Automatic annotation (TrEMBL), chains A, B:
<dbReference type="InterPro" id="IPR003850">
    <property type="entry name" value="PurS"/>
</dbReference>
<dbReference type="Pfam" id="PF02700">
    <property type="entry name" value="PurS"/>
</dbReference>
<dbReference type="GO" id="GO:0004642">
    <property type="term" value="F:phosphoribosylformylglycinamidine synthase activity"/>
</dbReference>
<keyword id="KW-0067">ATP-binding</keyword>
<keyword id="KW-0963">Cytoplasm</keyword>
<dbReference type="InterPro" id="IPR036604">
    <property type="entry name" value="PurS-like_sf"/>
</dbReference>
<comment type="similarity">
    <text>Belongs to the PurS family.</text>
</comment>
<comment type="subunit">
    <text>Part of the FGAM synthase complex composed of 1 PurL, 1 PurQ and 2 PurS subunits.</text>
</comment>
<comment type="pathway">
    <text>Purine metabolism; IMP biosynthesis via de novo pathway; 5-amino-1-(5-phospho-D-ribosyl)imidazole from N(2)-formyl-N(1)-(5-phospho-D-ribosyl)glycinamide: step 1/2.</text>
</comment>
<keyword id="KW-0436">Ligase</keyword>
<keyword id="KW-0547">Nucleotide-binding</keyword>
<comment type="function">
    <text>Part of the phosphoribosylformylglycinamidine synthase complex involved in the purines biosynthetic pathway. Catalyzes the ATP-dependent conversion of formylglycinamide ribonucleotide (FGAR) and glutamine to yield formylglycinamidine ribonucleotide (FGAM) and glutamate. The FGAM synthase complex is composed of three subunits. PurQ produces an ammonia molecule by converting glutamine to glutamate. PurL transfers the ammonia molecule to FGAR to form FGAM in an ATP-dependent manner.</text>
</comment>
<dbReference type="GO" id="GO:0005524">
    <property type="term" value="F:ATP binding"/>
</dbReference>
<protein>
    <recommendedName>
        <fullName>Phosphoribosylformylglycinamidine synthase subunit PurS</fullName>
        <ecNumber>6.3.5.3</ecNumber>
    </recommendedName>
</protein>
<keyword id="KW-0658">Purine biosynthesis</keyword>
<dbReference type="GO" id="GO:0006189">
    <property type="term" value="P:'de novo' IMP biosynthetic process"/>
</dbReference>
<dbReference type="GO" id="GO:0005737">
    <property type="term" value="C:cytoplasm"/>
</dbReference>
Amino acid sequence: MARVVVDVMLKPEILDPQGQAVQRALPRLGFDGISDVRQGKRFELEVEGPVDEAALARIRELAETFLANTVIEDFDVRVEETAEEVAP
Amino acid sequence: MARVVVDVMLKPEILDPQGQAVQRALPRLGFDGISDVRQGKRFELEVEGPVDEAALARIRELAETFLANTVIEDFDVRVEETAEEVAP
């Protein structure tokens, strides 16, 4: 069992009103020095079996077709932790 | 300028209907072998100036008080990239 993380963020050229709302609220709340905030989604997938290149390719396909709207969003797939590596 | 990432996920004991909806849809879409999906939020903060321990402490406070609802959510703060390290 391994955890694969898919991060989905709006493309840099797409306006992000959620992130802007957070960024504008920060000085009011006493937090200065943050020039930009972008808000996106993080998916944690628990994958059964080994996470080899074939499994990662399937997860990239899944992210591209289902988790992200690639017209306006970029995504990033990475393996975060692998139980097999921890076990002896 | 450095990018600090704040990941906000529902605590493991809190039901995640969004993640469940994704997980249940996967077999229908031809993706098997994924036993669980959790959906959360990812914030990318562009921080002016050096990201030292004091800055990270402030961002942790910001995440705790403003980005996450710590009754039901966990958060993780990490520096993702630092422009200063790339520049000579």
